[in-house]
Amino acid sequence: MKTIILNNGVEMPILGFGVYQVTPEETEQVVSNALEVGYRSLDTAQAYYNEEGVGKAITKSGISRKDIFLTTKVWVSNAGYEKAKASIDESLKKLQTSYIDLLLIHQPFGDYYGTYRAMEDAYKEGKVRAIGVSNFYPDRYIDLVEHNNIVPAINQLETNIFNGQIESEKIMQEYGTQLESWAPFAEGKNNFFNNEILTAIGEKYHKSVAQVTLRYFIQRQVVLIPKTVNKERMIENLSVFDFELSNEDMKQIAALNKEETAFFSHRDPELVKFILNYDKNNRS
Hints:
It is a single chain. This protein has one domain: Alpha-Beta Barrel (TIM Barrel), CATH 3.20.20. Strand 4, helix 2 (51-61) and strand 5 form a beta-alpha-beta unit. By secondary structure, it is an alpha/beta fold. It has helices spanning 24-37, 51-61, 81-95, 112-124, 138-146, 166-175, 196-205, 209-219, 231-238, 247-254, 269-276, 278-283; strands at 3-5, 11-13, 17-18, 41-43, 69-74, 102-105, 131-134, 154-158, 178-182, 223-224. The chain contains twelve helices and ten strands. The record marks 73 as: Lowers pKa of active site Tyr.
């Protein structure tokens, strides 16, 4: 597995497995399957309500904890120093581990400065090996970096062929933060899986549209966490290290980028309201 070295020297697999929208009931089995076929990087979050299943799968796998790179995220309802600090301990308990490899602020809302200070303390205490953010657009990202001691190791953003995050990545590189993609397949939006250019490139290498896309971002040095509950798809998504896209292929795929979200903007007032009420609505 190819790895990326984060800004504090921690090594992270470039390709991992995400469990967003995997139900709590199916998480343990799905993650067990992912570990069985070879994934060693797992991405969960407090707001996914499935940290327990991830923890159970890791514990039962028999795989050494040091060989698994584990990511989770602090949710908005746990924002602020004291709440975040308590939630980190709760996540450790649910995940059945003494440390988290990568801890992110999930959304750029609430008292995320207090949250980040709690994460910095957890990092210094050895509870976390690296800290970062998710969904921080360049303006808030720069503001956070300039007013805290530890530069985020990761910024996890919607990154796919339609929204390549080229400018965001350039800004993050100035500070030494690694770009990580969520929704690399854009959840199939914009007829992604039938894209003619990706299909044609895939035919040259006997690879699927998904594999071509993952390979493109790997060659761009972007960390990826595709999600699937299908074991065969898990294997397919891992099988992207036995071919290399040409410069022409890379240019063709890059030309598909419109820097437009396939989902939503975190600057949309209605989206902000939805996120701030997400936990309440999902627990009511």
